[in-house]
Amino acid sequence: MAPLSNATGTTDAEVPALPGDGLREAVVADLRSNIGEALLDVRLDPGVDLWARVATESWRDAGLALRDAGFRYFCFLSAIDWMPSPFGRGEDDPSAPPPERRTEIVQGYTGGSTRFQVFARLTDIDRHVGITIKADVPDDDQAVDSWTPVYAGADWHERETHEMFGISFRGHPDLRNMYLPTDFEGHPLRKDFPLLARIVKPWPGIVDVEPLPGEPEEADTEEKGE
Amino acid sequence: MLAVDLPYWAQSLLRVLGGTVAVLLPAGTIVYIFLFKMMSFMQSRLGPMEAGPYGSMQLFAEVGKWLQKEDIQPENADKRIFRIAPLVVLVSTFLLVAVVPFGPDAYFTDFEAGIFYALAVSSISVLGILMAGWSSANKYSLLGGLRAAGQLIAYELPMVLAVIGVVIQAGTMNMQGIVERQNAGSIFGWDGLGNPYILTQFVGFLVFMIAIQAELTQAPFDMPIAESELVSGYMTEYSGFRFLMFFIAEFATVGVFTLIASVLFLGGWGVPFSWFGWSSIDDVDDWMNVVGPLIMITKMLALSFLIMWVRFSYPRLREDQLQRFAWKVLIPVSVANIMVTAILKVVF
Amino acid sequence: MTDLIDRQKLSYIAAQAADARLNVELETEGMTLNIGPQHPATHGTLRIIVRLDGEQVVWADPSAGYMHRGYEKLVEVRTYPQVNTLINRIDWLGSFANEVPFILAAEQLMGIEAPARAQWIRAVFFELSRIANVGLFLGDLGVQLGAITPVFMAFRDREYVLNLIEGATGGRFHPNFDRIGGLKDDLPKGWIDETRQVMKKQRQFADEIEDLLFGNKIFQDRTRGIGVIPAAVAQSYGLSGANLRASGVDWDLRRDQKVALPYDQLDFKVWTHPDGDCFARCWVRLQEFREATRIVEQLLDGIPSGPVMAKVPRIIKVPEGEVYVSTENPLGEMGYYVVSQGDLGPFRVRIRTASFNNISVVPWVLRGVYVPDVISILASLYFILGDIDK
């Protein structure tokens, strides 16, 4: 079981316990007692925010446990694609060779081991605390359990996540596209899906400048490059 | 009345022209004064100002605009009925104005059962609306047409019942007769104001005005044309000249119904006869034939002001609330009005 | 099973029965009607497919996405200041409010604190955008229900607020005034006094609307008891803003969450209503409109002096981290989950918009209502298309 990562870079160890401190710890303890080993990693910024990562098989159970613990407000549900974009920002000079880009997948808070992660944000209105809960999506079978039995509002969010990332949700009643037409091919928010606007026409930092009519033609050396 | 004895065809021509003027002039006046200007002032804006001085030519500009638009007919529409529907609605207005008297001798026809005919004929527009709704091959139009059918038929009853009170009090269904009774009559012996039935038939007047508001599908009863839901209701698929006919019919019917209301409740074309020492309709001077229409128009404008004022102020009722209002409130009230009128008529 | 309450079970059964009745007894098909995408009632291109039985809705399915601009993809190729320009346009009626959570998120990741004066002025503009947004709602409410007059007054009175925003920022609809670390500029001279006058006018406008619309018996008939959303359902769908508070849930992010904006130093009331019907939602927004004017006046009284921009490096690189910041926007709760990997621009931004959740409840709430009530419910839920579709 992964150790608790309590990472705030706390250099001043004399920081007194801020109000609300015990609250988030209590939430973590509650969750751990409900799903036990499935709680893989936790990040707790005292008095600020709380992240948790659960095992993929316990995605729905974690949701149920949190809902029963008081997190009845469903904020949102989505996914993150941790692969760095192979296209960069689309501002590269097309005449120069493409620059070296990072390719290793580095997950953010609470770690992880897959390219995709689903994450959801829930709020407990009575105790004024929110939690971000994440789960890995296995690379070979990109599917997790649906949260529609847990929160009715997850319906639309899962549809959007499915169309944007290609992650399917087992048990979702009606998994069709939210924003895009039904026959759209591809999953736009994946990093390997290019932003065509930037591919087709590079960002104008390197654009040709046409001379005004009547002005003498600029020398050809002015055209390419800055 | 006229100094020259005209042959029949000339009289008919005059009547036709007069009828057209009697329908279109109120429509135009109401559209300009109330729809363009009064509504704008109530909404703290100016309204049309460009066409003509203070926008007075806007109406002609609009008519011209609508006339030169392409007449689009949906492919799936039932073409013949689609084309006839606006005509039916407009025709009912013209038929209605035939019984409205404008002066002691200035009338188109003088039926003995004038008001009865008017009430019967006013239902023809319902047919036109239904035809428009069904033949448009558009679900919105259909919804609008169905709502209109239910609403217009429901509100005919209060209208009729309110009029019965007037008829009982006047003792005649003849429109000229009603005008005469009002202007020659007196209230408890004082004849300074005649006996306009708005005073004695106040309940009937209210019911009648509400019923007209619904018959004309004006807010708060404009479910059939609920613009924010049904785009334009049964008029959605119409364009060009046919839409112009619906538009004119809407405001012309406002004009004609308020003309009828002013005949029934405000004393029509006359002023109290006692002001000039007349005692019956035969005594009335001939110049009243010229002044009478002017008086009618004034009274008509006053009543249409009320109708338009309510139209611009109130949100609209839902269809079932509308029906509930008609059947559970207006009809019992108007029936009670009839009973009271009948009792009082016998007693006094 | 889900946390279905009895009403939903009943309406589900009623819907099934309606279908059965339609198809078997009468042997007629129910009518399927498209409300939108081009429709006077929807604030933009929202398409709702309803299946009708006469005038009753049997099921409804909103189909959003006609205005999808792909913001979450677009921000991945932009730097943080460039993102600011983009997200102005999510909720275009109260656009300063869209910038605020993102800027606060970036500042939190960088560890920068904007100076106090900047935070107070941010709060003023935040509330002004709320006034502009809800002002339009109050006018539009009448139009949806058939009263065509209030909307003109709403537009006229909204102009004052837009002029204020333009006077300080240069843009009426898209001020683009917030910067990471503070604001672009300070307020012009005389602006504060002008704002005080305008706030008085806005309160007069609110009184006018209340007279004209809310007391009207027809308005009450059209909105009371229509579209009731119980508190539990509202929370499980993630409704926010006035929609949530009208169902009786006392939750306002200005008061209940710690944000950098100085709401903890102000005294304001959070309005709730127990009914959860259309009237409740409209009423809560009206009260919030008035409350916003009072908040602005309190803020103006207390703006501290000082700089409006903190010391921020010229090229903004946000260190690695993740943060979720949400604020009580005019439409509801708007939040940005920003994932940064130390670059010039964000790695992933999840834009949590209020109207997306607010409209997701439409299939549930429209079961069994009449067609005119559909319009009432949509009007009271109050969405902006850009907010649904990002």
Structural commentary:
The complex is a heterotrimer of chains A (226), B (348) and C (390). With 226 residues, chain A is α/β, with parallel strands linked by helices. Chain A is 19% helix and 20% strand. Chain A is built from four helices and seven strands, in the order αββαββββαβα. The longest helix of chain A is centred in the N-terminal third of the chain and has 15 residues, at 21-35. Chain A is elongated. The termini of chain A are far apart. Chain B has 348 residues and is mainly alpha-helical. Chain B is built from 13 helices and no strands. The mean pLDDT of chain B is 84. Classes of the chains: A alpha/beta (226), B mainly alpha (348), C alpha+beta (390). The interface between B and C is medium-sized, with 28 and 31 residues.
Shape of chain A: elongated
Question: Biggest sheet of chain A, open or closed, and with what strands and sense?
Answer: 5 strands, mixed
Percent of residues of chain A in helical segments?
10-25%
Average pLDDT of chain A works out at: 79
Which descriptors apply to this entry?
heterotrimer, B: 348 residues, mainly alpha, 66% helix, 0% strand, C: 390 residues, alpha+beta, 3-stranded antiparallel β-sheet, 8 strands, 50% helix, globular
Question: What's the layout of helices and strands?
Answer:
The complex is a heterotrimer of chains A (226), B (348) and C (390).
Chain A: H1 21-35, E1 39-45, E2 49-54, H2 59-68, E3 73-81, E4 116-124, E5 129-137, E6 143-145, H3 154-165, E7 168-170, H4 196-200
Parallel strand pairs in A: 2-5, 6-7
Antiparallel strand pairs in A: 1-2, 3-4, 4-5
Chain B: H1 8-42, H2 58-67, H3 79-97, H4 114-121, H5 124-135, H6 139-170, H7 175-184, H8 197-200, H9 202-215, H10 227-230, H11 240-265, H12 288-313, H13 319-347
Helix pairs in contact in B: 1-11, 1-12, 2-11, 3-4, 3-5, 3-11, 5-6, 6-9, 6-13, 9-11, 9-13, 11-12
Chain C: H1 6-25, E1 31-35, E2 47-53, E3 56-63, H2 71-74, H3 80-87, H4 96-110, H5 116-145, H6 150-169, E4 178-179, E5 182-183, H7 191-214, H8 217-223, H9 231-237, H10 242-246, H11 253-256, H12 278-302, E6 321-329, E7 332-340, E8 348-352, H13 354-360, H14 362-365, H15 371-381, H16 385-389
Antiparallel strand pairs in C: 1-2, 2-3, 4-5, 6-7, 7-8
Helix pairs in contact in C: 3-4, 5-6, 5-7, 5-12, 5-15, 6-7, 7-12, 12-15
